[in-house]
């Protein structure tokens, strides 16, 4: 063996240039690692999905004639960490080169950068060949001396890759159709939501292995995993999305409901795991969606395709830029000095707040919640309740099928908690029950009253919203997008203000019982 090539669990890119040529002198290593199961408590389905996808990838590479070693937790248990494993392999196979693809997580990138190998072994870093924007170009798009806005970045990417453009102008004349994408689901709409494409991958062996190695996981374990674990299933899911969900993707993107069998998926693609494990590339996903749009103009309108494309080439690439240009400091930011404990119900979903019970419960069941549930239900609650962003991050990083730090951290700490003080978003996404009621049907069967702000029946979000605004007045009142909100507060009577504050203080002191 002249070269040992490491493939991490989120580097399952079959189109990588590594695999263009077969070479018996190259040994590929794919390993289930204890350090990866233990840096945070993961959802059981997430670990199963990664391990199943890694194993499948190793088998596909072998079939294509490459030399591959797949190591399970049983094989790697004796190695303290990834560097120990690599060092042992380097000795055993007497390698000349150690090759790895640049990890997308700071933690792993540091670990591999610091890895020392015996004299004579050359360490070489390769690109993952996955993202639209090259790692080395991130500095061009993301200067660190000013705050960044997704919209500016997105327009540049649309132009650069000539996506939905007519010359140098956006198709249809507008860059962004977000305002058209805020419909609530009515009962008649719910009946029309398409059935999701769910797989049935047998992961019982992996579950047994996790138990044998006492890997602590959260959420519901299912021996028949519904997530795609190989390229073929990922492509099927992409085709299913383009055909059945894309026609109404944008329209109901922000909607939430507790009714209907499909309420947990709605018109969302659920492609994030396939993308983040790199089984699919963003270019491939966007091309496929654009193709469907062009072939079916009567079914798929411009706001639908634009809304989808923006998520992939806009938001996804954007948060990655923020992450790499701002780490490691970004992971420590806590603009509001939030320090409250994450309530226990985040781990079991039992709370009288129906929106929270539904969003947390669904996350525990499926390792999935869609964007608005993450941002405006669980995220908003943590923001208003002043939860320590380290704890919020750990929860998000563990629970979701697609959670990898480069994408989880800017979304959680930045977008949802505003702990970066505005690097990523122009104002905190803080909302009272009014928003939840507007975008969902959660409030109608809730124990609390979404309309009232005071008294024990009042929705905690209402008083917590004002408490949050008032306690951070100094930091927020100069924000032009927020100033008006304070005028609303100032107009309320002293008695009303005092009652709202009292209710909020009760809620803050009793978060676990809400
Ligand atoms: P769809 O709604 O179908 O969107 C299509 C794709 O667009 C997604 O698969 C994803 O790749 C991309 N996308 C959409 N929004 C974003 C975004 N804000 N940032 C990056 N990509 C985006 N996404 C993750 O992939 N991993 C995470 O760990 C993660 N953590 C999040 C934490 C919080 C607090 C919030 C508010 C959002 C987070 N997101 C994360 C972004 C987004 O919620 C998920 O990508 C999306 O819900 C995945 O479901 P989907 O594939 O059905 O998405």
Automatic annotation (TrEMBL):
InterPro entries: Crypto/Photolyase_FAD-like_sf (IPR036134), PhrB-like (IPR007357), Rossmann-like_a/b/a_fold (IPR014729), UV-DNA_repair_photolyase (IPR052551). This is Cryptochrome/photolyase family protein.
């Amino acid at each position: 063996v002249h070269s040992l090539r490491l493939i991490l669990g989120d580097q399952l890119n079959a189109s990588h240039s590594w695999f263009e040529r077969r070479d018996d002198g190259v040994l590929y290593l794919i390993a289930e690692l204890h350090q990866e199961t233990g840096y945070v408590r993961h959802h059981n389905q997430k670990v199963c999905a990664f391990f199943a996808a890694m194993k499948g990838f190793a088998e596909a590479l072998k079939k294509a004639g490459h030399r591959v070693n797949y190591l399970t937790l049983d094989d790697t248990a004796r190695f303290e960490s990834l560097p120990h494993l690599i060092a042992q392999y380097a000795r055993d196979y007497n390698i000349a080169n150690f090759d790895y693809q640049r990890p997308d997580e700071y933690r792993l990138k540091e670990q591999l950068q610091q890895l020392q190998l015996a004299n004579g072994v050359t360490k070489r870093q390769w690109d993952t060949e996955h993202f639209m924007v090259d790692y080395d170009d991130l500095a061009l798009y993301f200067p660190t001396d000013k705050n960044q806005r997704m919209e500016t970045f997105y327009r540049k990417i649309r132009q650069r890759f000539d996506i939905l453009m007519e010359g140098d102008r956006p198709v249809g004349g507008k860059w962004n159709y977000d305002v058209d994408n805020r419909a609530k689901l009515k009962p008649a709409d719910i009946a029309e939501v398409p059935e999701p494409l769910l797989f049935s991958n047998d992961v019982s062996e992996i579950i047994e292995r996790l138990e044998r190695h006492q890997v602590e996981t959260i959420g519901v374990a299912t021996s028949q995993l519904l997530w795609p674990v190989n390229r073929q299933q990922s492509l099927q899911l992409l085709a299913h999305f383009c055909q059945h969900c894309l026609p109404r993707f944008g329209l109901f993107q922000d909607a939430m409901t507790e009714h209907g069998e499909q309420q947990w998926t709605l018109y969302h693609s659920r492609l994030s795991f396939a993308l983040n494990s790199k089984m699919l590339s963003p270019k491939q996903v966007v091309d496929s969606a654009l193709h469907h749009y062009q072939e079916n103009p009567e079914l798929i309108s411009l706001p639908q395709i634009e809304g989808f494309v923006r998520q992939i080439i806009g938001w996804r690439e954007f948060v990655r830029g923020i992450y790499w240009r701002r780490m490691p400091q970004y992971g420590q930011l806590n603009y509001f000095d939030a320090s409250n404990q994450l309530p226990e119900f985040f781990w079991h979903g039992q709370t009288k707040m129906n929106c929270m019970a539904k969003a947390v419960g669904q996350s525990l069941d499926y390792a999935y919640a869609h964007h608005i549930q993450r941002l405006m239900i669980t995220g908003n609650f943590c923001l208003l309740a002043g939860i320590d962003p380290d704890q919020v991050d750990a929860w998000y990083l563990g629970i979701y099928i697609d959670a990898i730090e480069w994408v989880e951290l800017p979304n959680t700490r930045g977008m949802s908690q505003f702990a970066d003080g505005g690097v990523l978003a122009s104002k905190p996404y803080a909302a009272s029950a009014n928003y939840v009621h507007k975008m969902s049907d959660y409030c109608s069967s809730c124990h609390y009253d979404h309309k009232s702000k005071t008294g024990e029946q009042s929705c905690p979000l209402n008083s917590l919203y004002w408490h949050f605004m008032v306690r951070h007045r100094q930091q927020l009142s100069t924000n032009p997008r927020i100033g008006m909100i304070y005028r609303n507060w100032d107009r309320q009577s002293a008695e009303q203000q005092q009652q709202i504050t009292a209710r909020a203080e009760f809620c803050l002191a009793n978060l676990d019982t809400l």
